[in-house]
């Protein structure tokens, strides 16, 4: 896979950096976090720039870009700690729907690309950690369509979603994926702020009635669609983390050049230069593995694809912890305060490990595939 930016990708990355620098400043991010709701103006700006339709086929209102385009876009979003549901909806949701039939694609993808609809993949169940195999959320076919009962939790940006893409199990053992509109009766949503300033939700489904066309996929097709969504989301998250590390390293270097001790900048002390060098190496390794994760999306061998993505996620988590912790230490006591944005980057890079499978989960995948 060629990772040299095309002219179009370079222009998009430059435009996105300008937008992020203007609209996702430290004070603006804090205001959005305090509001607790989606900023429609910011969301529309991302849609107008083409971010939300980037990898959606042109037949369904998108731009049809190759998987490699995830890298420049999510690097820039990571640099600005953009917390809007780009990965849950425009990456994971779009990838899941793309693996379903034309009817599902035609119904949802144009709205996602235009920023008019937000979808979130609801696959995790309470008490089952990162298990992707639905058990307690049950779907039953009825004369009028489907009935859904159970619970899903940790639904990334679930409260902002126009619809949830819910995995469930039928009594005959079939796995199914159902599109559940947010206004469906029988669904209770509990919204929660996450440690990094994003949001997640718990869905309690009590006899939610859905029409027949709510069915997106079933059986092996449903398993494949969900796996595709998680793989695309993980690749984008690795790029996001690399972008956050890059910006955090820049912030730390600027601070050490400005802060003085014994009449000279802290950046002149060799011991601190060694710390910065360690952070740079970790960031570069994470960036290299983000390339690997994006390349995996075009890998035809399923086992090799899972191995590459798990390895990239491991490195993103490891490097993120190292860079974030060192950045806080190099800022001294100020690094522990809310007055500096270094803390926001620390929280985001800490959350990266927990999202879409933590270190233990990725190690288990690699052990299984060894």
From TrEMBL:
Database matches in Gene3D superfamilies? Acyl-CoA dehydrogenase/oxidase, N-terminal domain, Butyryl-CoA Dehydrogenase, subunit A, domain 2, Butyryl-CoA Dehydrogenase, subunit A, domain 3
Q: Which UniProt keywords apply?
A: FAD, Flavoprotein, Oxidoreductase
Q: Which GO terms describe its molecular function?
A: acyl-CoA dehydrogenase activity; flavin adenine dinucleotide binding
The Acyl-CoA dehydrogenase/oxidase N-terminal domain is annotated at: 6-116
Task: Tell me the domain of life.
Answer: Bacteria
What InterPro entries does the database record attribute to this sequence? Acyl-CoA_Oxase/DH_mid-dom, Acyl-CoA_Oxase/DH_mid-dom_sf, AcylCo_DH-like_C, AcylCo_DH/oxidase_C, AcylCoA_DH/ox_N, AcylCoA_DH/ox_N_sf, AcylCoA_DH/oxidase_NM_dom_sf
**E.C. number(s) listed in UniProt:** 1.3.8.12
List required co-factors.
FAD
Query: Could you tell me which residue ranges the Acyl-CoA dehydrogenase/oxidase C-terminal domain spans?
Result: 227-362
According to the entry, every stretch annotated as the Acyl-CoA oxidase/dehydrogenase middle domain falls at 122-203
Q: Which family does it belong to?
A: Belongs to the acyl-CoA dehydrogenase family.
| Name this protein carries in UniProt | (2S)-methylsuccinyl-CoA dehydrogenase
């Amino acid at each position: 896979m060629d990772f040299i930016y095309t002219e179009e990708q370079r222009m998009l990355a430059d435009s996105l950096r300008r937008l992020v620098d203007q609209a996702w400043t430290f004070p603006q991010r804090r205001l959005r976090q305090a509001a607790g709701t989606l900023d429609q103006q910011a969301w529309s700006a991302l849609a107008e720039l083409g971010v939300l339709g980037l990898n959606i086929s042109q037949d369904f209102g998108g731009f049809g870009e190759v998987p490699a385009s995830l890298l420049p876009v999510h690097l820039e979003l990571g640099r600005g700690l953009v917390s809007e549901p780009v990965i849950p909806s425009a990456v994971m949701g779009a990838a899941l729907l793309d693996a379903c039939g034309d009817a599902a694609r035609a119904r949802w993808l144009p709205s996602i690309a235009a920023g008019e609809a937000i979808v979130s993949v609801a696959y995790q169940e309470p008490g089952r950690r990162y298990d992707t195999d639905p058990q307690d959320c049950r779907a039953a076919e009825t004369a009028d369509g489907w009935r859904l009962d159970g619970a899903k939790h940790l639904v990334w940006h679930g409260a902002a979603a126009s619809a949830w893409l819910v995995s469930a199990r039928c009594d005959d053992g079939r796995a199914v994926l159902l599109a559940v509109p947010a206004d469906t009766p029988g669904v209770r949503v509990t919204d929660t702020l996450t440690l990094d300033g994003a949001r997640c939700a718990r869905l309690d489904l009590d006899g939610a009635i859905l029409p027949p066309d709510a069915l997106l996929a079933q059986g092996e097709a449903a398993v494949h669609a969900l796996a595709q969504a998680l793989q695309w989301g993980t690749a984008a998250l690795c790029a996001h983390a690399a972008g956050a590390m890059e910006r955090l390293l820049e912030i730390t270097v600027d601070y050490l050049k400005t802060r003085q001790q014994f009449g000279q900048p802290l950046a002149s002390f060799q011991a601190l230069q060694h710390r910065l060098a360690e952070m740079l190496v970790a960031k570069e390794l994470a960036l290299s593995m983000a390339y690997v994760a994006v390349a995996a999306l075009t890998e035809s061998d399923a086992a090799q694809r899972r191995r590459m993505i798990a390895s990239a996620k491991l490195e993103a988590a490891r490097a993120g912890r190292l860079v974030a912790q060192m950045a806080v230490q190099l800022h001294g006591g100020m690094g522990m305060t809310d007055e500096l944005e270094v803390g926001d980057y620390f929280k985001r890079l800490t959350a990266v490990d927990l999202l879409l499978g933590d270190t233990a989960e990725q190690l288990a995948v690699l052990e299984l595939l060894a």
